[in-house]
Every structure is written in structure tokens, then in C-alpha cells.
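COMPLEX REQUEST
Ligand: nicotinamide-adenine-dinucleotide
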Amino acid sequence: MTHRITLIPGDGIGPEVCAAARAVVEAAGGDVDWDVQEAGATVMEREGTPLPERVLESIRSNRTALKGPITTPVGTGFRSVNVALRQDLDLFAAVRPAASLPSVPTRHPGVDLVVIRENTEDLYAGIEFEAGSESIGILREELRRLAGFEVRPDAGVTVKPISVTGTRRIVRFAFDFARRNGRRTVTVGHKANIMRFSDGVFLEHAGEEAAGYPDVAFAECQVDELALRLTSAPEALDVLLLPNLYGDIVSDLCAGLIGGLGVAPGANIGDEAAVFEATHGSAPKYKGQNRVNPMAMMLSGVLMLRHLGRDDAADRLEAAIAGVIAEGGSVTYDMKPTRDDPTAVGTSQVADAVIGKLQAA
Ligand code: NAD
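STATUS: Structure written out below.
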């Protein structure tokens, strides 16, 4: 069966890593019909917005997208395309696996973690009050009246909403994920002792939902302690479930544990659509140089194939990427022992090497 997939090349290094990922997904027998949709800096001048409605319509209709990184324009009044996509399509779950790969230089060889991050609430909900604005004056008065709390007159404020509904759906998602993928434990990271009515909601309702999954263990850990455990014994952890902000920070930490952004894939999943993308950004300084690592994007393609039920193609592609890494010859600078290693190859050569492995298999 052919899968029609929205392909968003993005900007910066996006088009290069996407071309590599597209080529290897096809070579793995992914059977994909790509619906290419430009977004980001490249279309802003032409179409007046970095996220034209046609892109959202394409994803809604195809239900699955593979997306390159997109630069967040600074000072143009446009919100981040990446945040906008998650909000407009209600992609409430970010899934970021972090597994040590053989031959990738790292201090932590036995890591096999998955970070699941709530994607729509928390301090990222966008409820912002600028210092000195009229609205913060009203907010200060209300806080004084409601809680007897005196906010300093020169403070800016970001509000942290965490709902029972938002919590329960991400908890169910995490436990269903754990069950489907043969995982043993879901550990919730929080700071419920300090933020009793936001993180407190997350922890309490996570515990209640978890009771419906007797086959998956539920654990909880304060996020600062979790940071310590991740740097001392990350191999002892399994699925981590976190509210939005902690999830953002912890997933980059986990990418660092397994060898960096060049090999860290990700997915943003909702009830109606799923968008697969690398954890890294558009790295504008490397744009057009055929230099950066396409493996994070390729591994996002592996996640996409699994999501489509194409485990056969996903297994082949994952094995081919692992084979190229294990041989160590055809890898980019970030996977060499030193960054200026003259034997490092470029983005497109990595794709050629992976395709070579697929053809030889
Ligand atoms: P970045 O991830 O783009 O780059 C930071 C550094 O990480 C790079 O300079 C490079 O040294 C390294 N790096 C990143 N990707 C790599 C790869 N594939 N191979 C090898 N090395 C790699 O982060 P940034 O510089 O903070 O962000 C640049 C832009 O990307 C910003 O506009 C940001 O908003 C955007 N961004 C987009 C997304 C997304 O599209 N989902 C995610 C993060 C950042």
C-alpha cells in the first residue's frame, strides 16, 4: 500500500537532511508518495507567512508528515512555525527516543530511553504578560485581590496551565506507547511539591490513569532528581513522561547522552495527525554546505515507518543506519573522534552509504 506523506523540507539545513531521509526511506521500500510542501523562511516573502494554510491542509488530509527544521523568525511578529504546527494540529505528544548506538562516541553506552513530552500546555501555552504593559497592571491587581500576592511592578509573567484533560490524555498515550513497545516502566518527572496546582495535577492524575495499566510500572521522580539520575545512571530509566517545559529540557539532555543532536529523532503525535522531525534545529551556519548529519532525520523516518505500520521497512532502515555507524567510515564530522577529522563525509555521502547497505542486505 502506498502512503501519501506530506514532506516539509524546511529551511537552513532542512532541505539537505530531508533529501537524505527521503532517499533512504524510499530505498528501504517505504512505498511513499511525497506531497512536498514548502514552509519557513523560504516561503515567507512569497506567501506572506512562514506557515501557509495549504501546509496544514496537506497534513490534515495525509495525516502524516516528515518535516525538516524551520528557523524561528526573530522580531517579525510571526510565532514559531514549529509551535504553531503543534498547536494548530493539536499534536499533544512529543516522542523522543534516546538509545545508545554502537560506535557513536558517548559516555553512556547502555541507554535506551524514550522521552514523552506533553506538547500543548504548561509554560509553553503562550500566556504571556509583558513587564510594564497595561494587562500586567490588571493581572497584578487581581493577584493581590485573589491571593494577597504582590508581584513586583517591573516583573514579566508567564502563566503555567496544566489541566486534568491534558494530563490524562498524555498519560494514556505514554502507557499505551509503553505497552505497545514492550516497555516496563513509565517515570513521571514533576515538581509537585512546589507547583502544587499545576505539576500537582499532572502527578495526581498520572497516578490515577496509571492504575488502568497494571502491566506497566508507574514511578515518579522530582525533575531535579531525575536530572541527577540521568547523568549518573541513565541506563536504569525507561519511559520518561514530562510536562512541556521539563520535557523540552530533558529530551535535549537525553540527546546529549546518546551522542548528540545529529542522531536524535522525534515525533509529534495527535489524534488526527503525526509529524516526524529531528530534535535539532535549522543550524543556519551550515546551510548548503553538505556537512551536517542526516541520521536524526533518517531515524525520524524510521519512527514514521513504524507509525505507518511498516515495521519491515523501518527495521531494514534502522539496521542499515546502524551498519554505517558501526563501520564508522561514512559518517559526518560530529560522529568522528574529533570535529576536524579529515575523513568525515558529507550529508549526501551518508545517504549513499545507507542506501548501499540497504541494497546489499
Ligand atoms: P540547532 O539545532 O539548529 O543547531 C545548534 C548546533 O547543533 C549547530 O550549530 C550544530 O553545531 C549542531 N547541529 C544541529 N543539527 C546538526 C546536525 N544535523 N548534524 C550535526 N550537527 C548539528 O539549534 P539553534 O542554533 O538553537 O537553532 C537554529 C534555528 O532552528 C532557530 O531558529 C531555532 O528556532 C530553530 N529550531 C527549529 C526546530 C524545529 O524545526 N523543530 C528545533 C530547534 C530549533
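REMARKS: Residues 17, 69-72, 82, 261-262, 277, 280-283, 285, 292-293, 296, 334 surround nicotinamide-adenine-dinucleotide (CB under 6 Å). Residues 164-180 form the longest helix (17 residues).
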